[in-house]
Design brief:
mainly alpha, 5 helices, 2 strands, 61% helix
Length: 241
């Protein structure tokens, strides 16, 4: 829809007068409005479809939202510096991100190493537990078998055992005490003592008889109440050689 402008005719007054007020005409500009929606228009409308409105107060100024030449020039001057700053900031951000990625990778590797070490440590602990359990079982077994093995060793090493028992008088005395507590040991100790006593008695009787015979030519054991000298030497309970 097109509107054409028209000029309002000036009104003439009747007769000249110096005191009459003068009317200053305001320059009006035609505005062409294209409307497809048929919205109502305000102001006077002529037959041509144009309306006359007062010129805008901000004529010659930029519209709201538009960038003026001064702003464009300032933006053009500031663009290299701003671009450099943004580029430097981007580089720092990228370097920081790389550092974070490297740190994350190192931490993951460290966690993997720790996990492997933990697995190896756990396996070593299990192995040590198994070895300790085996040693404990062996120790219990040896403790149970020790008396029998000691008896066997003593029976197979009598000479060495005797040498140890008779190395110190106190040890010998303690050993004979234990021997005397056993039935066979008591009998053997008695036989050894009897043999020693009888061997000493024969020698003593021989010496006593010899001395008395020198002093008394009519010496007789019965007259002095002495036991006769045995004809044979007492036999030891075991071979002495």
């Amino acid at each position: 829809m097109n509107f054409r402008s028209f000029t309002i005719p000036k009104k003439k007054t009747g007769g000249p007068s110096s005191a009459a007020p003068k009317t200053v005409p305001v320059q009006q500009e035609p505005v062409e409005i294209h409307s497809d929606e048929g919205s109502p228009l305000t102001g006077k409308t002529g037959q041509t479809g144009r309306t006359t409105v007062n010129p805008p107060l901000d004529k010659g100024k930029g519209k709201m939202g538009e960038v003026g030449p001064d702003a464009l020039e300032q933006l053009a001057n500031d663009s290299p510096s701003r671009s450099s700053q943004l580029e430097e900031k981007l580089k720092r951000s990228e370097a920081h991100n790389r550092e974070l990625q490297d740190l994350t990778i190192r931490q993951l590797e460290e966690m993997d190493n720790l996990s492997r070490m933990a697995g190896a440590t756990q396996a070593e602990i299990l192995r040590l537990k198994e070895e300790n359990l085996k040693l404990m079982e062996d120790l219990d077994s040896k403790e149970l078998e020790f008396p029998d093995r000691a008896k066997q060793w003593v029976g197979e090493n009598l000479e060495e055992t005797t040498r140890v028992i008779t190395s110190i008088p106190e040890v010998t005395m303690e050993a004979f005490k234990f021997i005397y507590r056993e039935p066979n040991g008591k009998e053997m100790v008695t036989q050894v003592g009897s043999y020693g006593f009888m061997s000493g008695q024969k020698r003593d009787l021989e010496a006593t008889h010899a001395i008395l015979a020198e002093q008394d030519s009519a010496f007789s054991a019965d007259a002095y109440g002495l036991a006769p000298i045995p004809d044979e030497e007492p036999e030891p309970p075991f071979p002495l050689e």
